Amino acid sequence: MKLDVEHELLVLNLKEVLSTSAGRNVLWHILDNAGIYASSFTGNSQTFFNEGRRSLGLYILSLMEDADPTCYPRMVLDNVKKLQSEEDNG
Protein backbone atom coordinates (compact mmCIF):
# COMPACT_ATOMS: atom_id res chain seq x y z
CA MET A 1 0.00 0.00 0.00
CA LYS A 2 2.77 2.46 0.92
CA LEU A 3 4.61 1.72 -2.32
CA ASP A 4 1.47 2.45 -4.34
CA VAL A 5 1.08 5.85 -2.67
CA GLU A 6 4.79 6.64 -3.18
CA HIS A 7 4.58 5.59 -6.82
CA GLU A 8 1.51 7.75 -7.43
CA LEU A 9 3.20 10.75 -5.79
CA LEU A 10 6.30 10.18 -7.90
CA VAL A 11 4.20 9.98 -11.07
CA LEU A 12 2.38 13.21 -10.14
CA ASN A 13 5.69 14.97 -9.56
CA LEU A 14 7.04 13.63 -12.84
CA LYS A 15 3.97 14.97 -14.67
CA GLU A 16 4.92 18.41 -13.39
CA VAL A 17 8.52 17.97 -14.57
CA LEU A 18 7.35 16.76 -17.98
CA SER A 19 5.10 19.79 -18.35
CA THR A 20 8.16 22.02 -18.76
CA SER A 21 10.53 22.19 -21.69
CA ALA A 22 13.48 22.24 -19.28
CA GLY A 23 12.26 19.09 -17.53
CA ARG A 24 11.83 17.23 -20.81
CA ASN A 25 15.29 18.34 -21.96
CA VAL A 26 16.92 17.06 -18.76
CA LEU A 27 15.11 13.72 -18.96
CA TRP A 28 16.02 13.39 -22.64
CA HIS A 29 19.67 13.94 -21.75
CA ILE A 30 19.50 11.36 -18.95
CA LEU A 31 17.83 8.75 -21.17
CA ASP A 32 20.30 9.40 -23.96
CA ASN A 33 23.23 8.85 -21.60
CA ALA A 34 21.58 5.76 -20.12
CA GLY A 35 21.94 4.02 -23.47
CA ILE A 36 18.48 2.48 -23.35
CA TYR A 37 18.71 1.44 -27.01
CA ALA A 38 22.38 0.52 -27.02
CA SER A 39 23.87 -2.88 -26.37
CA SER A 40 25.35 -3.09 -22.89
CA PHE A 41 27.58 -6.06 -23.74
CA THR A 42 31.32 -5.39 -23.91
CA GLY A 43 32.78 -8.80 -23.18
CA ASN A 44 34.25 -7.64 -19.88
CA SER A 45 33.12 -6.20 -16.55
CA GLN A 46 32.14 -2.89 -18.22
CA THR A 47 29.00 -4.77 -19.29
CA PHE A 48 27.71 -4.75 -15.70
CA PHE A 49 28.14 -0.98 -15.44
CA ASN A 50 26.47 -0.43 -18.81
CA GLU A 51 23.57 -2.70 -17.91
CA GLY A 52 23.03 -0.89 -14.60
CA ARG A 53 22.96 2.46 -16.38
CA ARG A 54 20.58 1.08 -19.01
CA SER A 55 18.34 -0.47 -16.35
CA LEU A 56 17.97 2.86 -14.57
CA GLY A 57 17.14 4.54 -17.88
CA LEU A 58 14.44 1.96 -18.56
CA TYR A 59 13.01 2.54 -15.07
CA ILE A 60 12.83 6.29 -15.73
CA LEU A 61 11.21 5.63 -19.09
CA SER A 62 8.63 3.41 -17.38
CA LEU A 63 7.83 6.17 -14.88
CA MET A 64 7.48 8.64 -17.74
CA GLU A 65 5.02 6.31 -19.48
CA ASP A 66 3.00 6.08 -16.27
CA ALA A 67 2.96 9.87 -16.04
CA ASP A 68 2.16 10.51 -19.71
CA PRO A 69 2.17 7.69 -22.28
CA THR A 70 2.53 10.16 -25.15
CA CYS A 71 5.41 12.18 -23.70
CA TYR A 72 8.36 10.06 -24.84
CA PRO A 73 7.19 9.70 -28.45
CA ARG A 74 6.69 13.48 -28.55
CA MET A 75 10.17 13.98 -27.11
CA VAL A 76 11.62 11.75 -29.83
CA LEU A 77 9.84 13.74 -32.55
CA ASP A 78 10.90 17.06 -31.00
CA ASN A 79 14.52 15.96 -30.96
CA VAL A 80 14.40 14.65 -34.52
CA LYS A 81 13.02 18.03 -35.61
CA LYS A 82 15.75 19.78 -33.63
CA LEU A 83 18.45 17.70 -35.32
CA GLN A 84 16.96 18.31 -38.75
CA SER A 85 16.84 22.05 -38.07
CA GLU A 86 20.48 22.04 -36.97
CA GLU A 87 21.45 20.16 -40.16
CA ASP A 88 19.50 22.63 -42.31
CA ASN A 89 21.13 25.62 -40.60
CA GLY A 90 24.60 24.26 -40.23
> Which radius of gyration do the C-alpha atoms yield?
15 Å
Order of helices and strands: HHHH
Structural class, from helix and strand content? mainly alpha
Low-confidence stretches: none
The shape, in one word, is flat
Q: How far apart lie the N and C ends? A: 53 Å
Largest sheet: none
Overall tally of structural domains:
1
What is the count of DSSP helices, taking H or I runs of 4+ residues? 4
Work out the number of β strands.
0
Mean pLDDT: 95
> What share of the residues does DSSP label as strand, in percent?
under 5%
Helix content: over 70%
Per-chain topology:
Layout lengths: L1 H17 L2 H14 L11 H22 L3 H19 L1
Q: Brief description of this entry?
A:
This protein is mainly alpha-helical. The protein has helices spanning 2-18, 21-34, 46-67, 71-89.
